[in-house]
Amino acid sequence: MRILLVAMPDAANNFHRIIKVPNLGLCSIAAQLDGHEVKLADLVLVHKNIRVWLKNLLEEYRPELIGISSMSFQYQSAVTVMAICRLYAPQAKIVVGGYHATLCYAELAEAAAPPFDFLIRGEGERAFPALVDALDGKRELAGVPGLSWAREGIFRHNPQGELLDLRQLPLPDRSVRVLDDFKYFDRKLDCVESSRGCTMPCTFCSITGMYGASFRCHTIDRVIADLTELRRRGTETVLLVDDNITLDASRFRRLAEAIVENGLDRMEYLVQASVAGIVADPELIPALARANFAMVFLGIESVLSKNLQLFQKGDIREKTDQAVRSLRENGIGVMGGFIIGNPDDNREEIREVFRASKRLRIDLPYVQCVTPYPGTQIRRELLDAGLVTNPDDLSRYTGFMCNVRTKHLTVGQLNRLMNWENIKAFFSPNMFFGNYFVRRREKGALKVLLNNFDLIRGWFTGDQFRSRHKF
Predict the structure, then answer these.
(1) Which end of the chain is more exposed for a tag (fewer CB within 10 A), N or C?
(2) CATH assignment, 2-157
(3) Beta partners for 238?
(4) 239-242-244 Cα angle (round to 5)
(5) Residue among 77, 90, 88, 139 nearest 117 (CA)
(6) Sign of CA dihedral 25, 30, 32, 33
(7) How do residues 86-139 score in pLDDT, each as one tens digit?
(8) Alpha-carbon torsion angle 384, 310, 75, 401, nearest 10
(9) Which residue(s) pair with 346 in the sheet?
(10) Residue 300 in 3-state DSSP?
């Protein structure tokens, strides 16, 4: 069977000139499709004239099955992509999966004339090949785990399958990519997963809606084998896409040590970490430095006790100071993740987040507004409080366009305040001199400066950092 897997073009961040990240999940699914012809189109690399590019691919390849992966903010693009596929590959069946399909499957299936034939909930590595077997007549649709499918115009929802044993998964198949020019600044970028899931109760996060409260790990040998393959492919920067790799800080340290032992430390590494986890093992950060970890995205979330309580993060303020200080002492850059626009936030409290970022010497403040993502506890709480001003247009759910007011600020006031404080932070000399984020980067300061002008645009339009792709 000819199978086409498609990742959406939406890049909901303010660093589109700096980083373009591949979809690793579709490569993992492709590795399960032995005996079939598979291609993967990651539209984040197409960006312009997507309709024409996709039309040419569909007419040349003539897929029989098309798999669409979509986050919630990307679903509007997914609907457009599915319409293009219907027009230029009418013979193909279409299946949609990913976070949005998992968290909103009933709503999507009950819509008038859904644009897909099948929907997969949860992990696709087992369900998608099972669907392929069913379409080949080797099994019944009713036995495909996590599948939603129509009979006589009514969608049926099969029981969810058990979570996968990650130790049984083969390495991702990146050879199926139609495009492969992913970059971090001037360096060839790719992704690796070493673990999946999270057990933390953060109210703003949808990970537990996808996997439940679980944490599963690949073996370190398997991760090293994947990194070795990336080195063979010429990768220079590796992004670890784990949901919360620091849930087991000692294992993370052992992985960093294995990177050095296997001579893989000439590639640089980027990773997301929790504040509590990164300081749980005192040897972890020095080990990361030896393994050439260049940047850590640190989930600080807030410097205000009341908001940390709202997020169920605990009072991690002292650990935040410790984590940032230790990372910088070891030569590792810090991207600090913060969330503002919480119910009781006023102007002064939002400004304090930016001031604290400067005091902490965060290299890159990554300040998002609280966003009521489907399937999260905070969405239910904010809807009940009447604070969600946009419950339906999920294309604005990027984290940078405000969809929630506070008790003290309208959405417009919150957008402008967030943008103004970002403008001050990103045009500060501290962003360009002695900053770990831009050091050793070809044209790094220039690319950051160009990206900063999106902040000025957002000041006038209110849609800061909306993805600039064009169909």
Answers:
(1) N
(2) 3.40.50.280
(3) 190, 269
(4) 130
(5) 90
(6) positive
(7) 999 999 999 999 999 999 999 999 988 899 999 999 999 999 999 999 999 999
(8) 100
(9) none
(10) strand
For residue range 198-255, what is the model confidence (pLDDT) as tens digits?
998 888 888 888 888 899 999 999 999 999 999 999 999 999 999 999 999 999 999 9
What's the whole-model pTM score?
A: 0.93
Gap between the Cα atoms of 181 and 4, Å rounded: 19
Note the pLDDT tens digit of each residue in 398-407. 888 899 999 9
CA distance 252 to 329: 19
Amino acid at 190: D
**Strands 187-192 and 216-217: what pairing?**
unpaired
Q: How many CB atoms lie within 10 A of CB 331?
A: 13
Q: Do residues 199 and 155 touch, judged by C-beta distance below 8 A?
A: no
Position 442 confidence tier, pLDDT thresholds 50, 70, 90: low
- Type of residue numbered 439: R
Strands (E), 57-123: 65-69, 93-97, 118-120
| Alpha-carbon dihedral sign for residues 352, 355, 360, 366 | positive
Sequence ranges of the domains in the chain: 2-157, 182-461
Distance CA 247, CA 430 (A): 32
Query: Given phi > 0 = left and psi -120 to 50 = alpha, else beta, which region is 36?
Result: beta
Q: Which residue has the tokens 């939603």?
A: 148
- 197-to-43, 114, 200, 309, 399 alpha-carbon distances in Å: 26, 29, 9, 22, 21
State both tokens at 117. Answer: 């034939």
Is-contact 439 429, C-beta < 8 A?
no
Per CATH, the number for 182-461 is 3.80.30.20
Q: Is 197 helix (H, G, I), strand (E, B) or coil?
A: coil
Residue recorded with tokens 């205000």: 304
Handedness of CA 316, 322, 325, 328 (dihedral sign): negative
Q: What is the C-alpha to C-alpha distance for residues 43 and 179, in angstroms, rounded to an integer?
A: 9
DSSP helix/strand/coil, 11: coil
How far lies 394's CA from each of 114, 180, 297, 307, 374, in Å?
17, 28, 25, 24, 9
